[in-house]
Design goal:
With about 280 residues, this protein is an all-alpha fold. It has 2 domains: about 1-45 and about 55-60; about 70-284, MetI-like fold. The chain is built from 13 helices and no strands. The protein has helices spanning about 1-35, 40-45, 60-70, 75-105, 110-120, 130-140, 150-170, 175-180, 185-195, 200-215, 220-225, 230-235, 250-284. α7 (about 150-170) packs antiparallel against α10. The longest helix is centred in the C-terminal third of the chain and has 36 residues, at about 250-284.
Length: about 280
């Protein structure tokens, strides 16, 4: 027994070291972005991995340039990113949770077909539909920050419904039957009984979808008029000077400003992601 315990302890320590090294590799790009956001453009071009010194350190100048560059304010792009993210995630959570409840409780050929159709949408590459999507979005006027969330609802429904269905199937049906006996219709039963029990999966799906929508570049770039509407990823791409020159210091500063909110959200909510995914997998 002591020998087995010793082997387990050694293996545990080895895994700890391996995961620490993986974490360092994972965090390194963020650290490099932070370091280079404090250096001059010439110093970044000379050696991107060097620490800032007395000559290369520029303080907050890169942040000022990145925020005020060109005739399109950074905070306007940030506002559009917030609007698109909040509306998209809200629509995804509301409609996919309702659809998942229907799929899990109504055992019909249509519900099964709809469920597998949603799963199939997860494996379809975006490149296969992007040109048709652009044409359709223009015709249906889904090319503004207030309407593009409908497009995100279509693309984000697959994963969300998959996770919600797995969790709902593990919920006791007797609670919903008791609500029906007390006079609750389907709408009240869902919002007053089912939705509160979905909290772990709601939070985990919400965080995953938030990170996806906030960092997405391709869909807004293809669908929206980038001269009128720019999200943060698109704004970063347009940090160019004359002849296509790029101010790397300003770009790094804006990239850092864009990833800080999503990192904070993830740090505070990562435990809910693990709980939600585990609950959906085990109960489904």
């Amino acid at each position: 027994m002591k020998h087995r315990k010793s082997e387990y302890t050694t293996f545990s320590r080895i895994l700890t070291v391996v995961f620490i090294l993986l974490c360092l590799v994972w965090i390194m790009p963020i650290v490099e972005v932070f370091i280079n956001s404090l250096k001059s453009n010439a110093a970044i071009n000379l050696n991107a991995f060097s620490l800032p010194d007395a000559e290369s350190f520029v303080g907050l100048d890169n942040f000022k340039k990145g925020v005020t560059f060109g005739n399109y304010p950074f905070f306007k792009s940030a506002a559009y990113s917030v609007i698109i993210t909040v509306l998209s995630v809200t629509l995804i959570l509301l409609f996919t949770s309702m659809s998942a409840w229907y799929i899990a409780r109504v055992n019909s050929k249509f519900s099964k077909f709809f469920y597998y159709l949603c799963l199939f949408s997860m494996i379809v590459p975006f490149q296969m539909v992007m040109f048709t999507l652009t044409f359709t979005a223009d015709r249906l006027k889904l090319n503004t920050p207030w309407t593009i969330p409908i497009v995100y609802l279509g693309f984000g429904a697959g994963l969300a419904i998959f996770m919600f269905v797995g969790f709902i199937k593990g919920l006791p049906l007797e609670i919903e039957e008791a609500a029906a006996i007390d006079g609750c219709g389907p709408v009240r039963t869902f919002f007053l009984v089912v939705l509160p029990m979905l909290k772990p999966t709601l939070i985990s799906v919400g965080i995953l979808e938030t990170m996806w929508v906030w960092n997405d570049y391709l869909l807004p770039y293809l669908v929206m008029d980038v001269n009128e509407y720019k999200t943060i990823p698109i704004h970063i791409q347009y940090l160019k000077g004359s002849y296509g020159s790029v101010d790397l210091g300003a770009s790094m500063a804006v990239i850092l400003l864009s990833i800080i909110p999503i990192i904070i959200v993830y740090i505070f909510c990562q435990k809910y992601i693990i709980k939600g995914v585990a609950a959906s997998a085990v109960k489904g």
